[in-house]
Design a protein that fits this description.
Chains A, B: This is proline--tRNA ligase. The structure is a homodimer. Chain A is α+β, with helices and mostly antiparallel strands. Helices cover about 25% and strands about 30% of the residues of chain A. Chains A and B meet through β3, α2, β4, β5 and β6 of A and β3, α2, β4, β5 and β6 of B.
Amino acid sequence: MVGVRRSDLFLPATRETPGSGSNAAKLLVRAGLIRNFGSGLWAVTPAGQRVREKLTERVVAAMDAIGGQRVRLPGLQYADRWRESGRWGGFEDEMFTLENRDGQAMCLAPSHEEGVVHLLDGRVRSHADLPLLVYQVESKFRDDHARNGLVRTKEFTMQDAYSVDVDEPGLRETYREVRAAYERVLDDVGLEYAIVEADAGVMGGAASEEFVAPVSDAGGDSDRLVHCTADGCRFGVTDEHDGSDAHATGDACPECGGDLAASDGIEVAHVFKLGTRYSEAMGFTVDTGDGSERRVEMGSYGLGVDRLLQTLAQQHGDSDSLAWPVTGWGSAAPYRAAVIPVGEDSEVLNVAERIHNDCGRDDVLLYDDLSVGERFAESDLLGIPATVVVGNTYRENGVVDVETETGTEELAVEAVAECVERFAASEGEHRVGSGATD
Amino acid sequence: MVGVRRSDLFLPATRETPGSGSNAAKLLVRAGLIRNFGSGLWAVTPAGQRVREKLTERVVAAMDAIGGQRVRLPGLQYADRWRESGRWGGFEDEMFTLENRDGQAMCLAPSHEEGVVHLLDGRVRSHADLPLLVYQVESKFRDDHARNGLVRTKEFTMQDAYSVDVDEPGLRETYREVRAAYERVLDDVGLEYAIVEADAGVMGGAASEEFVAPVSDAGGDSDRLVHCTADGCRFGVTDEHDGSDAHATGDACPECGGDLAASDGIEVAHVFKLGTRYSEAMGFTVDTGDGSERRVEMGSYGLGVDRLLQTLAQQHGDSDSLAWPVTGWGSAAPYRAAVIPVGEDSEVLNVAERIHNDCGRDDVLLYDDLSVGERFAESDLLGIPATVVVGNTYRENGVVDVETETGTEELAVEAVAECVERFAASEGEHRVGSGATD
């Protein structure tokens, strides 16, 4: 990695503000993390991609830690398996369909239950091959009405996982493990969320739960959430499911007695007990060891990476600036620190270079262009958690000012790297408050 | 990572052989690395995904090392920019098109010249913002006639890069850097290839070169290559471009005097000097600092990750087994080693477990099911470069047999990890024969 110098970086910050969506969606555009490609389509810039990669690596580590096996299914698929499952032409009118040059019907997969059955079918034959958990992190496509930036789009990156068990107790256990893995991911990245009972909708199956993040403004997306504000309690209800009318702001949480609060909500993840919904329709069975065949019990799990990115921004930014939570895991901010030289003298510039090198160059943004005022404004807009200022304090006392969420402290040059280390995203599985678990 | 035990792994090896394509394409299916999803569409299994990730990480490191900035553009796009460039409806009839729910024309992007212009347009305004190199590693879509497994498909993963320079000398320099980066990648992973002048075709522009790998059987894909077999010489010509008739097997290489050989060839990468082909059509200019505006000079570069995977397999496997080259960089094999216990006694099983732990559990496959014969056969079929056998030699002498391409050696248990380390894929930029360069 050659290091990130502001003069080399393509960061398309802009004063233009898009007309719709939440304030955070607009800030992501203004800060140059994403750029619109027409209704419901977005590109991610180099800085935005860094946030995506940090979030993706966290969820990949969580899946690997519970024995998930990463695969890659095609996004473009033929109709046959969708006809078998009964979802062809029935995906809430949100499935993109097209024909290939030979006139065969195809679709852009909005979900991969059919694909996973096809991947496993005929190869997974015995109860001894189960349980099995496969996952991918790929684009999904839905012809949805575009709303609120990255929250409701026509193409989006999701980590989607699919489990296969021989019986219902097995499914319950796998479901519990994936649900707990998602909790660890969302806790680590610093999202506030509730886990609410939900309708299975187009996925089908017996039961499902959504991870819904409270936000002040869902940008026109109408999920209404009532959730418990007590630390660690995940109780919540939404108006998509029965029971939300029974609770309101100020009521006591039926689970822990804490205070309930009403707000908009954004669904960031969804876990489904599909049961035999797909194994019945598509004839996916295993032998049980006693000579009989049995339809497998499946689960389906999805966590929206792009959605998570924006929802974090919605919960933590203010009207003028993005902000990314800092936890024991670290931060999803595009860079752990910005180094801002104040002045053009070689003494200051050399120290700024040295700090850039010491701190992990590929994750630290060195400001070597723009005016001093623009440097501070942009670093603030991006939500970079630490700003290392090399200027008068250095000239006078040989120390630098490090500005973080806890205030400004003066540090020796050689102490900066360790100080900003905590703003990096940890690698692998990491549990806030209890150290690494893998 | 919980480690790879054969009993947990979904590896859909099969005795069925698909009807078409090269022998290596069939072996990839038989070994369970990929599975067909209908004409031109493939899924990648957990073991196949590991190979893909090793190759992807290598090419990402190469792009980062020359200052490439990773982005992500949508695969689904509206027609407007394609109409501007003049490629809507003209992409050799290979562009998938569809309509969204509002009747707007869309396509699945087969390439991203238009997307990159849209990403940069209006944000890159000055010569001081250049040069710029952005890249992504994402799915591309082409409604091609499916042939030869992963080589010619309708959806494929490509690392595609796009450069923007202020003038032609700048483009020449950037082109040279990306071309050299691709050489380093292909050298590291152990591909044999020639660099041949090519027609720019649907990309347009002034000049282009292809990286073409000689193979004995292109599986019905008809590129005919004549290339120099001398070490380090990259001379070659194909029948897609003028001049291939002028050379034949046995002729002397016009560049180095070495022996030429004719064979089938597979294009694994392509680099294009686009010049102002897109900046003219789409009005992408920068100010030059003297008050005038100038159309930017662009380059476009693509390396097919899935194609590279299969082409490596074609060059190195035999009729019965896959094989992955071992270089100073390491190997793209799905696992650096297989640990095969011979016997069921706890002494043998415990040592196998210990070696599995010592060697990097997530990259070493521990055989804990199948018969002993099946273990050896499968490890061989997968092309795993080192087989660690724990059996009689251990019981008698306390050492294990490590079988590699250089033969079998007896090693103390604690020496195995270091021995198999060289079969792992190195992280970051690594130059065969000259150590790390970043």
